[in-house]
Amino acid sequence: MDNFVDKFERWITYVLMGVALLMITLQTYELLREMISNLVIRISTDGLVFKPGSMHSGVVLFFNILLSLEILATIRVFSKGHEVKIKVILIVCMIAVSRKFLAADTQEHDSLQSELGIAALILAFALGYYLVQKVEK
């Protein structure tokens, strides 16, 4: 029975890794396409003048790709030795919370409390990462 579970787990891991690779590839293509089209449109209309909100969706896509890569690394580490590295998990958490903060429009933030809560989460994950790294040395 354990042999079946191990094979099933390995198969599911490969499927998850394949799906993650496909998502990363598609998101990278979309990021490049969006950046080039935004750049062409912006240069044709405004020249090289920087507008703060012009690349908002590109930044969100960038963090999606980064988050997907970290999750893929987590799956690979787990599949090789059945161990979960706490540092990798903390990095994934920091990226996910940062992405959530950047993805939200400034009009969506209903209060200062939600922004302070997100900032507290990022600081807590960063402190946890620092403490784990300090203990490992």
Number of domains: 1
Compressed to H and E, one letter per element, the order equals: HHHH
How many DSSP E strands?
0
- How much of the sequence lies in strands comes to under 5%
CA-based gyration radius: 19 Å
Provide a brief overview of the structure.
The protein contains 4 helices and no strands. With 137 residues, it is mostly helical. Keywords: Cell membrane, Membrane, Transmembrane, Transmembrane helix.
What characteristics describe this protein?
single chain; 137 residues; mainly alpha
Write up what this structure looks like:
- The chain is built from 4 helices and no strands.
- The protein has one domain.
- It is 83% helix and 0% strand.
- It is an all-alpha fold and 137 residues long.
- α1 runs antiparallel to α2, α2 packs antiparallel against α3 and α3 packs antiparallel against α4.
- It is flat.
- The mean pLDDT is 82.
What topology emerges from the helices and strands here?
Blueprint: H1 2-46, H2 56-81, H3 86-103, H4 112-136
Helix pairs in contact: 1-2, 2-3, 3-4
InterPro entries: P_starv_induced_PsiE-like
Transmembrane segments: 12-29, 59-79, 86-104, 116-132
Pfam family, one: PsiE
